Amino acid sequence: MDNLQSYSDESLWQLVSSGNEYAFALLFDRYWELMLKEAMIKTGSEQDAMDCTQELFIKLWNHRAQLTIQSSFRAYIFTALKHRVISHFRAAYTAKMVLVEEYNDPLEEHTDLMDEVQAKEVATLVATEVEKMPSKMQRIYRMSREQGMNIHAIATALDISEQTVKNQLTTALKRLRIAVVQYYGNMVPLLLVSPILYSQVVFLT
Q1: Rounded CA gap, 160 and 156, in Å?
Q2: Domain-wise residue ranges, the chain
Q3: Residue 138 to residues 150, 178, 182: CA-CA distances in angstroms?
């Protein structure tokens, strides 16, 4: 397999259009945090930002064969995020204005159950991969995830620089993302696990 990490965004997207999941994983890895930060600025809400960013990547993957990106991929995805944020708030406003009769949908309940099962499976995979990390990296990761400590607090507690903490967390999260992609071979679990892998690095700084 070619070293796709050296490919440009546009070259990767051409591969994605043909169904290359690894190429999509690389674009996801390059732009997830950037899009999440941008969405946070536009929405002012961590949850709304997470929703908009996930919806954006899901739409990109689901419509990969039909999407023709004529400008740069970076320009396209920023514009797409802006429209996604607008659509998100429009949908939220409509939901508030329209009275919807509540009902029980067996299919929806089944889907929720499958999501819960898959989330537990991903959490188990992440826990296993964390155990394989070098001791220093593992300790920093656990302080961030399990103890909820931000980067400054971790650096102070361990008497190391904040940049060292960031570097260790970035490497740890990259290892986990690669493990998830290799295990599942598709993007749905990666999108499902994204709040676990990304949220605290972006917001707890």
Answers
A1: 7
A2: 4-96, 113-187
A3: 15, 16, 21
Tokens representing 99 are 């009275």
pLDDT tens across 70-92, in order? 778 999 999 888 888 887 776 65
Look-up: residue for tokens 């941008």? 38
- At the topology level, CATH places domain 4-96 in Rna Polymerase Sigma Factor; Chain: A (1.10.1740)
Q: Which CATH architecture has domain 113-187?
A: Orthogonal Bundle (1.10)
Spatial contact of 181 and 121, defined as CB atoms under 8 Å apart: no
Maximum mean pLDDT: which of 24-38, 102-116, 185-199 = 24-38
Q: Which of 5, 22, 23, 26 is nearest to 14 (CA)?
A: 23
Is residue 78 within 8 A of residue 53, CB to CB? The reply is no
| Among 135, 137, 141, CA closest to 196 | 141
In angstroms, the CA 74 to CA 15 distance is: 16
Instruction: Measure the CA–CA gap between 164 and 168, rounded to whole angstroms.
Output: 6
More confidently predicted of 105 and 164: 164
134 pLDDT band (50/70/90 cuts)?
very high
